[in-house]
Amino acid sequence: MQVADPILQTKNLNVYYADKRVVTDVTLDIVRNRITAIIGPSGCGKSTLLRCFNRMNDLIPTARISGQVLFEGQDLYAPSVDPTEIRYQIGMVFQRPNPFPKSVFDNVAFGPRINGFKGNIDELVEQSLHRAALWDEVKDRLNSSALALSGGQQQRLCIARALAVQPRVILMDEPCSALDPIATLAIEELMRELSEEYSIVIVTHNMQQAARVSHFTAFLMADDTRIGHVVEYGESRQIFTNPQDERTEAYITGRFG
Amino acid sequence: MAIISSGDFSRRMNRRKWQGRAFHALCLLAISVALGMLAVLLVYIGVKGASGVDWDFLTSFASRHPDQAGIKAALLGTIYVISITSVVAFTLGVGTAIYLEEYTARNNRLARLAKLNIANLAGVPSIVYGLLGLAIFVRGMHMGQSVLAGGFTLALLVLPIIIVAAGEALRAVPASTREGAFALGATRWQVIWNLVLPQAFPGILTGVILAVSRAIGETAPLIVIGALTFVPFTPDSPFSRFSALPIQIFNWTARPQAGFQEAAAAGIIVLLVALLVLNAGAVFLRNKFQNRDGG
């Protein structure tokens, strides 16, 4: 799929853990200010691919890549690039809510503080919590522990925490898989609102979710020789109603995976 | 159909219940023996030594006469030595643990070898550390038989305990916390300082309490490096010679006079109280950190 002005791109990207290739020859353009879903069966390299976009794979000692990952046309893996700076611009929300054992306020303020924010922190925290649709629920307990919130609230807090550093892109690694259906709906609604300002890439197991929220969908698969290659990538409407590849059709109709 | 006939089942059930009761009784016996011994020790020492602990005992120096003998020099010696030990062992131990857990990869062979050896060092007899301290600090670094040499030697002795405990505490901090912080653009130092250490601190402190409690009662290494048993002065500098509570107690118990036996019992009470004060302080600190941020 050709994209005019992609925010993120991969070019012939391969990722290896030690000698095992877990992402194979992925060339993908991520569209600006849209939601892109990465779907596929377990173990097909979805999360690994996602973690290339903010260099979280660097934390795994045996991981290495070949090929290119570009952010606004700049090579993310160039030697001059500091992964810390990348992560400041490309935020991430994880599978399990992982609030810090601090107060609600300190969780949201953490990112701005460590990055040297000098402005009005109260305002920034409130604004971030508003954007994450959490403000009304926590405004009276900003100083109590974030661990006392419900799972859905914790995940929205993690989104607020990511928003507080005002990133350009938000990566979401199965953000709803540990949540109940109502909390899931709240997050999905939030994602749609956020996509007006942010580019979002979401990894999900849940095909209904991908169909509901995403504008574009990439279907990844693993077969005997190639783990984590893109079978089909295109507009979600097309992928879910009129897939071009029979493997995509088999997957979205629930025949495997 | 049941997989076991009902006759068999109730016979077995009976046996299973008996097994449960027997195990329960065994555990009860174990704790009774442990608590019983402790009670005997406390009562014995209390009866024998309580009358000996008074202001004079705490503020007098050692003496040839049992009724004039006091514990001032040994008490101060222990306080000074343990202060040095705590600071040195805490700094080196926690630093080492942070390096091993946070700065080396999980699968780093060298780090794993280092951890294995450190765990083994925790089991080395204390007298061996005394010899090491004698060779390195007393002679090699010309500290002499001083408070400083004593403090450093005991620090070496408890270092492995602190490293192992601090390592456990650091490993108990979930990886998801670190990931969350890295994903916000935190540097490794910020992750460690702002998130990992505050969460691990109560556990680290528990290790330090255990280690320092062990150090405070150690006699052998201090004897090896040449701590004195008769000290009619207070240590006035880190290079001053010194005595310590366990050495003083050991010395008194070796005397034939009944008066010195009582002084020894009184000395043990002082040692136990010092230990309790130390532990209480550390527990207080730990609780303070645990309650902070609701973590």
How does this structure look, described?
The complex is a heterodimer of chains A (257) and B (295). In chain A, strand 9 and strand 10 form a beta hairpin. Chain A is globular. Chain A has helices spanning 46-50, 83-89, 104-114, 121-131, 135-138, 151-163, 181-194, 207-213, 236-241, 246-252; strands at 8-17, 20-30, 35-39, 63-71, 74-75, 90-93, 169-173, 199-203, 216-222, 227-235. Chain A is built from 10 helices and 10 strands. A 6-stranded mixed beta sheet of chain A has the order 6-7-8-3-9-10. Chain A has a 4-stranded antiparallel beta sheet with strand order 2-1-4-5. With 257 residues, chain A is α/β, with parallel strands linked by helices. The mean pLDDT of chain A is 92. In chain A, helix 3 crosses helix 4 (121-131) and helix 6 packs parallel to helix 7. Chain A has a domain at 8-99 and 171-252: Rossmann fold (3-Layer(aba) Sandwich). Chain A is 33% helix and 26% strand. Chain B is an all-alpha fold and 295 residues long. Chain B has a domain at 77-244: Orthogonal Bundle (MetI-like fold), CATH 1.10.3720.10. Chain B has 11 helices and no strands. In chain B, helix 3 (72-103) runs parallel beside helix 6 and helix 3 crosses helix 10 (245-253). Chain A binds chain B through residues 54, 56, 59, 61-62, 84-85, 87-88, 91-92, 94, 96, 98-103, 106, 110-111, 114-115, 144-148, 158, 161-162, 165, and chain B through 105-108, 174, 176-187, 190, 194-195, 198-199, 293-295.
Instruction: Give the biggest beta sheet of chain A.
Output: 6 strands, mixed
Characterize the main sheet of chain B: none
Order of helices and strands of chain A: EEEHEEHEHHHHEHEHEEHH
Helix content of chain A: 25-40%
Shape of chain A: globular
> Going across the major beta sheet of chain A, what is the strand order?
6-7-8-3-9-10
Largest interface: A-B, 33 and 25 residues
State the separation between the terminal residues of chain A, measured CA to CA.
Answer: 24 Å
Uncertain runs of chain B are none
The SSE order of chain B reads HHHHHHHHHHH
Strand content of chain B: under 5%
CATH class bucket of the domain at 8-99 and 171-252 in chain A: Alpha Beta
- How many β strands of chain A by DSSP? 10
